[in-house]
Amino acid sequence: MDDEELTPATRYLGIDPGLNRTGYALLEQSARGPVLCEGGIIRSNQEMNLAARVHEIASGIREVIAEYRPDVMAIEQVFTTPKFPKSSIIMAHARGAILFAAHDAGVPVVHYTPTQIKRLITGSGRASKEQMQHAIKNELGLKTILEPNDVADAFAAALCHYHTIRVACF
């Protein structure tokens, strides 16, 4: 976490950025803990050029922000691996569109690495997608795991910030 907001919020928007699919998830704070409100996917058309795809993502995030009015957005940071450097560049395009939309709407943004999110949610910075899905299911008291992974990862980002704020405020 490194940015703008470290004060309690009531609505947390988590984002799992991607150029093909960007997952989003909204959590609300309640007396009994975090409550799942909404989650979904913003897709871009792979047949369109890069500029049009980035615009689709930004437009989708703007719609989500306008409808749900989050107090803060938690987003996964770009990571890179030597085997797939192009992946981080592609994800950076999506993150740029998302960050622009959030800033334009006045929503503070905080950033977490995938390892930070995994460690806080599961206790292990190397947790698998399946372990993350089960941890989220258990924490939110859901009957089934969240799918697809993009939505589960977005909820994980929102939960990560929710718990980070709770610890920081005590």
Describe this entry's structure for a reader.
The protein is an alpha/beta fold and 170 residues long. The chain has a single domain, classed as Nucleotidyltransferase, domain 5, CATH 3.30.420. Helices cover 47% and strands 21% of the residues. The chain contains five helices and five strands, in the order E-E-E-H-E-H-E-H-H-H. It has a five-stranded mixed beta sheet with strand order 3-2-1-4-5. A hairpin with a 4-residue loop joins strand 1 and strand 2 (21-30). Helix 1 packs across helix 2 (85-104), helix 3 packs across helix 5 (149-168) and helix 4 (129-140) packs across helix 5 (149-168). The protein is globular. It starts with 10 loop residues before the first strand and ends with a helix. Mean pLDDT is 89; it is low at 1-7.
Mean pLDDT comes to 89
Write the element-wise H/E pattern from the N-terminal end onward: EEEHEHEHHH
Report the C-alpha radius of gyration, rounded: 15 Å
Number of strands: 5
Total of DSSP H or I helical runs spanning 4+ residues: 5
The CATH architecture can be given as 2-Layer Sandwich
Order of strands across the biggest sheet?
3-2-1-4-5
Full CATH superfamily name: Ribonuclease H-like superfamily/Ribonuclease H
CATH C-level class = Alpha Beta
The helix/strand class is alpha/beta
Main beta sheet, described?
A: 5 strands, mixed
In total, the number of domains comes to: 1
Which of globular, elongated, flat, extended, rod-shaped describes the shape? globular
Beta percentage is: 15-25%
CATH topology: Nucleotidyltransferase, domain 5
The proportion of residues forming helix, as a percent range, comes to: 40-55%
